[in-house]
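Write out this protein's structure.
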Amino acid sequence: MAWTEERVDQLKQLWGEGLSASQIANKMGGVTRNAVIGKVHRLGLAGRATPAAPKPKTVQRYDEPELKTPITGLENLYPGIDRPTVSSIDGNQCKWPIGDPTSEEFHFCGQPSNHGKPYCAYHSQVAFQPNTGRREPKRITPTALPKIKVAG
């Protein structure tokens, strides 16, 4: 199908009326939707207004909790215990990090840890919380493939 001047004029008219490329192709006959889109592009006809975007979902916002003042004076909580660092922590000490790892004051808890655990009793309770309401994923057993009969 060739694009004659009459067909180009018809295309421009239908495009101006707001018909879709599929509707124009159906009305004109003998032309595909993609051909209409290509010709519209080559003619430089004005693009369409984008369809109305769906309304954004409203996000429920919660008030941020007030930040509590940091607890100070913990240095003397366990007298006689040095602050263990990465290079000085022992295998049976609590490895709960305290402070900013990039600062000089960074250290670990250092309390005696439970056997086989990396943390002391308190930090173990914080780190290892019980499984509440989590379900095991359903296990899907694969079905056997049909046997292929070999012609012989």
